[in-house]
Structures are given as C-alpha cells and as structure tokens.
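Feature request disguised as a bug report, sorry. It would help if multi-protein outputs had a clear separator. Right now it looks like this:
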Amino acid sequence: MNQALKNTQIDNEIEKLVTREISITLEQFTNLLPKVDKSMLRTSSKQTGQYELVNRAGTVHINCSQSNPRQLGSLSVPVLRVDLDFSGYQSNQIKAFMTALDDVFVRIG
C-alpha cells in the first residue's frame, strides 16, 4: 500500500471520531438529543450516557461523561464531554450531522 493511500485512510478514520464539551447536564443532553434527528435515535441510556443513532448513512455511537463543573466567579457551569464515533459516514455527512448537533446544543450550552 502506498504511503499517500495509507495516510488518507488514517485521516478518514481520525475525522470520524469527534469530541465536544457542552455546558449542560446529562439529563438535558438526553432530552435534547432527539431534536438533532428524531428518526435516528435507536437506543439511549441516561444512566450510562451511551446513545446509538442509526440512519441510512450509518451509525453514530455517542458516549457522554459529566466532568467537573467550571467555576465562573460564583457561577458553577456543568460540563458534559460528548464523544461521537461515526461508522459508515462520509466527511460531508459528518459535517452536516455536527452542524445539526451544534444548532441544537449551542443554544443551550
């Protein structure tokens, strides 16, 4: 396998793993996730913070973990780490999904 092809495959795999930090709680995330695309949500578990979204493009596995809150003066802000693993998605489909996700969650967190 030539080096250029190998690097392209690695780059494609890297961009299929996305991490975000959102200033909301796990409960808020669970309630808002269906607004990204209601037809996609297959399984969810608020207890474990794991979700699976499925559509024709592929599957998105989401793993959430609540981090220590950030202190902004006297204000305590929740921090939720969201790891998204895209399977079967092309780059443009990932970008479209992330835009939809950001549109929903930027308003809140």
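(second protein starts here, but nothing in the output says so)
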Amino acid sequence: MQRIQQLFSFNSQEPLIFTQLDFWLFFILVMVVFSAIHKQYVTRSIFLTFISLFFYFKTSGLFVLLLALTLVVNFAFGKRVQNAENDRTKKGFIAASVIFNLLLLGYFKYAYFFTESFNQLFETHYEVVNQFALWGNGFFGEGTFTEKILIPIGVSFFTFHNISYVVDIYRKEIKVTRFFDFAFYVTYFPHLVAGPIVRARDFIPQINKPFRLNKQEFSWALVQITKGLFKKIVLADYIAVHFIDKIADAPETYPGFISILAMWAYSLQIYGDFSGYTDIAIGISRLMGFNLLENFQSPYKAVSVADFWRRWHKSLGSWLRDYLYIPLGGNRSGGIGTYIASTIIFVFLIFITQWYELVYVYLGLMFLYFICWHYFPSVKNLLNRDLNLLITMVVGGLWHGASENFVIWGSMNGLALIFYQYWKKISPYEQSTSWGIRAWRIFITFNFITFTRIWFRLDEAGEPMKMLEQIWLHFDFSWDVFVKVLETYQAAFWIILTGFILHWLPQSLKDKGTQRFANIPFVFQAICIAFSVFLMYQAISDSFKPFVYFQF
C-alpha cells in the first residue's frame, strides 16, 4: 500500500527521470495502453496528455496546475488569432500571448534576481511575495504551497512551446487544433522538461497520422536510448561526481592547470548530460511513432563558433533564429525592435552589474552607429546584423538563468559570432581542406567554448574570476603533480578520454555500427542492450544527479 502511495505522490528528492527504474516501468505501462488505442487519434491524444501531466506532477509537484493554466490560456489565444478579422488584431493577440508567457516565466525565474538587483541599486528593502502560494494556500489550505518562489522544472521549454503554437497559427503554418491535440503537443512527456524544443508546425501534423514503426526504426530507437543512458550515467554523472565537482567547488585548493582539465571535462559532462537526455527523449518518442528533430550534431567537431551553434542545442538556436533574430531583421535590416531591444539589454546590464560606465559605452556605440549610418550607408546592414546577433545571444543567455554570469556567457558568444562574421572574409584558412588546419580550428573553437563555460558552471557572481585568477596566477604545472592527478582520478580520466574519442569518431562509422545492430536478430539485440545497461548502472553514483537542463 505504501508503494502505491509513493507511485502517486510527489517527492522532490526523487523526481521521475529517465535514469530511474520507476520511469521505465511507467513507460512500459504507457506503451501497453498506447498499443491498444493508437488507432483512435482523439483518445490517444487525451490519454497521452493526462499521462504527460502525471509525469510532470511526478517531476514538479503542484506546478502541474501552472502548466494546465498555460494550456487553457494559450489555446484561447490561438483561437483568437485565427478568428481575428484583421492583421492588427491578430498581432495584438500574439503580443498578449507573448506577454502572458514571458510574465509567467519572469515571475518564477527572475523575481528574486530583479528584486535583489533593484534593492542593491536603489538601496531599498523590497521582498518577493509569492502571490500564487498565497492564493493556493487560501484555496487548498495552509501549507499546501511553499511561500518561497521555486522554479518549475522545464518552464523555459513549455513557455517556448506555447509561444511557438500561437505564432505558427498567425503565420498560417498550422491551424487551430482540438484542445487535446494542442495540450498533447505542449505536455508530451519525452520533451516536456528538458527539450528538445519542438515547433508546433513540426509536431502537431504528426498527431493524427497512423502509427508506424518498422524493425530498423525500432533498433535505431533502442540505440538512441542506450546511447543517451551511457552519456548521462557514465560520461556526465561519473566524471562530475568523481572529478569535476571536486575541482570546480574549490579551485583555489588546486594548481591552476587542474582547473583547465576540469573545465575540459565539464564540456564533456554538459554535452553528455544534455544530449543524453535528448537522445533518450528522441528514442522514446520514436517508439511511440513520433519524430523529434535532432538536437546535437557532434558539436565538438565544430571549426568555428558559428559552426558550433549550428551543432549545439539546435532546437533552441533555430527557435531563437525564427522567433527572435529574423523578426528583428536578421542579416538584412534592423527595425525599431532592434533599437528597443538593444536599449533594454544595455539598461538591463547596467541594472544587474551596476557598472555605470556602460552608459558611456552605449552612448558611444550609438554615436558610432549613427555616424556610420550617415556617412557609410553600406555598413548599416552589417551593424544591424551585429546588433541582432548580440541581442539574440544575450536573450539566449538569459533564457538559461537569472544570473549576470549567464548574461556574460551569452554576450561572449554573441561577440564571438560577430567577430567570426568579419574574420571569415579575410581568413586564409576558411576554405582549407588540410587535416592539420581543421584540427587546429576545432581545438581553438573547443577551447573558446570551454572558456565561456566557466561562467556557465560557476553561476555565483565572482566565482568565475576566482577560477581565472587561480589559472593565471597559480598555474603551477609540473609533471609530478600532473601524474599524481591522473593516478588519483584514473577512472574518471579514462572515461573522459573514451568520451572524446567516441565523440570525434567519424559519423559514418557510428552509422555503420547502428546499421549492423539493426540487422542482428531481436533476441541478440535484447541481450546486448540488457548487458550494456547492466554495466552502465555499475557506474551510477550514490548522490542523485538531476539533468543539468532541469534548472532551465
């Protein structure tokens, strides 16, 4: 009886995630029912919506009510947009939908951040009040909701899904669907809490198509799931617990060169963690007959920052491109939105950093912009493109979290993309096919991305500078210490080496391996999968490691 109660209750210490046995029991039960109703499209949508809401409840508790609220509101906005008689009214409803979604996101994700920054800037003492908790406790009883504002898991993801639905209706890429088709699209449990970010136009048309799954697709899905588990349990969690966390949590106690090793390993960890989740999500979804788009494409094979962002978290990059960068003007122009957005971002940077000198930087940049616009009209589009790029990457940084470190991380990537746009025009190596030059470009790109991740991993203000000071002032490399570190963390370093080798293997070789696996009899496939999973779970740590992107 106690076990049944546990299954239908929420425990914040044990959320329902892909690496737990409970999840796979849950998935098997879902597939049993799904196999009986998959031809009844409406029933299927209703069933998977409620199952997905249950999954979210097991992950985030009563925040499932917030998710349900966003479904009702955004479905209503979608109908209003489609039924509006003129374009101006449609845009008004889109604006209302975007404001509603961003206000909810801002309230839960940025309330403390903005309040603390405001108090520091104006020397006030305002406190954050959780109005939703006050209302909820008044309705359901005292103590039902905690008074501290917690971030709902996956709020950034389902916010973008809701916005995509309403905007895609306006663009006439989809039509208003049945409520449960829309609810199924937003809540679909494989992508709900950590992506990939799915477009309404890509997913909703699949909902009313017949289920189809052949042996090749089934085998491919098994490989994706197994690969994802390996990335999460072995590559990400093991090296995090047994090496990275020990160094990153106290970099001042180690020579600086060890922090570099830890950050190289962190680049592998976050790739294994996030791409591992999306691999499992894509594999599970394929078993259910739905296609989710690829989210990672060997990002550490990238030869430039631009190439990296075409390979890393592709669903976020394409979402920001289509719903932010292009509406701002993209490569060609800059409208009033570009100038308003750039002003807001600079004000925001001054607000959170209290670097008042940024006022002069902004005014200087604006003066330079108008000089170029007046005397060199051909430069105008380039400046607009650069502003749009920077705005998009800063917003991408803020999407990840309420911290000045994420703003700095996004800004550095934006500036690097701008620099590359000019560098590629004069670089003698851009079109080179030399293996050595390609390897050098990969090395430079990987190290730049790893450098920016210091601000990603150490999210407390000031912590990144402490690590950089330790690297710069106390590098202290010696072979004796290096060998001692390798011996102390031997297992972790073998896994790190294995992870990078596997990552840099040619894609054609990986595809051949998948194809050979698909060709063997199912019994041998089952044995191989079971043996692989058994070995992986020997590496699992006693300390619970949630997926990194759950916090976003």
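Even a blank line would do. Unrelated, but nice: The mean pLDDT is 85.
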